[in-house]
Specification:
mainly alpha; two-stranded parallel sheet; 7% strand
Length: 128
């Protein structure tokens, strides 16, 4: 352990916490997301009801420095399209999740999440 400007009176310690779960713990990867979505799809089929996956998205910071936001949205688009699920992305224009950052005024192209917009355009454009 190391630190900078740690006061002489500070207590520093390394700790390990162990947690348990009644359900199996999985990585939060594409296989896990498919498993979770498939559970809802199975329920919808069993109950004979249509499903709508509303307001899913990835927070703005997940697109910075290759933190996985674009990969996660790609996986979600692939998963929802393969299962023919209707969905909405949250959100079009806001600071937290938006394709365009900011609020209030009209979307500013200078504040666009261009890679995300390109992904949606490529993935959801109808092929002729």
């Amino acid at each position: 352990m190391r630190g900078e400007k740690v006061p002489a009176t500070a207590t520093c310690q390394i700790r390990i916490d162990f947690f348990s779960s009644r359900a199996p713990v999985h990585d939060s990867d594409r296989a896990f997301v498919e498993q979770e979505v498939d559970a809802y799809v199975a329920w919808g089929k069993r109950e004979k009801v249509p499903l709508f996956l509303g307001e899913w998205g990835a927070i703005r910071q997940s697109f910075d420095e290759d933190r996985g936001g674009l990969r996660w949205v790609t996986d979600m688009l692939d998963i929802t399209r393969a299962r023919k699920l209707s969905f909405t992305y949250h959100a079009y224009h806001e600071d937290g999740f938006g394709l365009y950052r900011g609020a209030g005024a009209l979307p500013d192209p200078a504040r666009a999440n261009k890679p995300l917009i390109d992904l949606f355009t490529k993935t959801l454009t109808l092929k002729k």
